[in-house]
Please model this.
Amino acid sequence: MTTLAPYACHAEHTRGRRYTEAPPQGRSAFQRDRDRIVHCSAFRRLEYKTQVFLNHEGDLFRTRLTHSIEVAQIARSLARNLNVNEDLIEAMALAHDLGHTPFGHAGQDELNACMQTLAPQAGGFEHNLQSLRIVDELEERYAGFNGLNLCFETREGILKHCSRRHARLLGPVAARFLDGTQPSLEAQLTNLADEIAYNNHDIDDGVRSGLITVQQLLELPIFAQHHQQVCHQYPQAEGKRLLSEVIRAMINTLVRDLTRTTAARIAALKPDSADAVRAGPSLAAFSDDLRAQADALKKFLLDNLYRHAQVMRMTNKARRIVRDLFTAFLDDPRLLAGEYQRDDPIEQARAIADYIAGMTDRYAIREHHNLFRMD
Ligand code: MG
Model:
């Protein structure tokens, strides 16, 4: 068994849970968090939520669930390379997208727009905040408390971004958004593992869908270099096997570069505790060269995949569905099941946002059909 670095989050020194519980037997506090996340219903719903492609558009595309598992795999490798807490990083990775609405970013942007314009007092909608809200409040599994009662460190990692306005209401878990400090190294690495995962799997899904081509991708230095390397090593490889090898090589390069760059920063700054990591500058980073290459890849995907006409059509429909649902429920909350009805108008808007955000793609489409069609 390897010993964790002094700058890692150590389970025995956790800042604890919101509701005091006896420590777990036979597993660490962060293993228990990971297990609670895997058993919660929001986690199971990830299977039916869009990453880029609608869940029912094809059986082989990534969903939020398979994306989260890929993030966890990459994050765990990083944790082992850098001697930080693998259980904690896995918990964060598996929970990082729990708050996503149906239909990916389109659904979230529309839900936020609805909250901002139709219920301006209610405080908008942010998916990171929603992930925290799910694990803190919305899951109903335990007799003694709402939510999953996770450790501070796991909650800190789940809350990737947060406006100052919300940070003021959330207490210690959001303090860093007010005082400019960092989250743990595990949280920093999970963020970048997320980026490595989606950049690479979106290439795979994009080519599989026919919306982007290998020919286009070869204009990107990071793709071209690895493509050349794989063709040299496996001259007979072609088609999806060649593409898989290129993606595999790119993930490897990114993980190794991130490990090396982060290790160098750790060696220079010598943080001696997780709190020293929080107080210092951000540690987890790619080298400047890889950062630039990864940014070019992101821009390519934005221009050619996320804004492809076919994706935009889906996005447009998704936004309409979310807006129609929100408007109908806000106009007449009696359309909602009793558990989502509230007396206070601000709480009502929030309950509607919770309800819509919790929907899977399919459920939202069915609910829209139920509300707006007679047949
Ligand atoms: Mg993600």
User: Anything to note?
Assistant: The pocket of magnesium ion is lined by residues 67, 71, 96-97, 194 (CB under 6 Å).
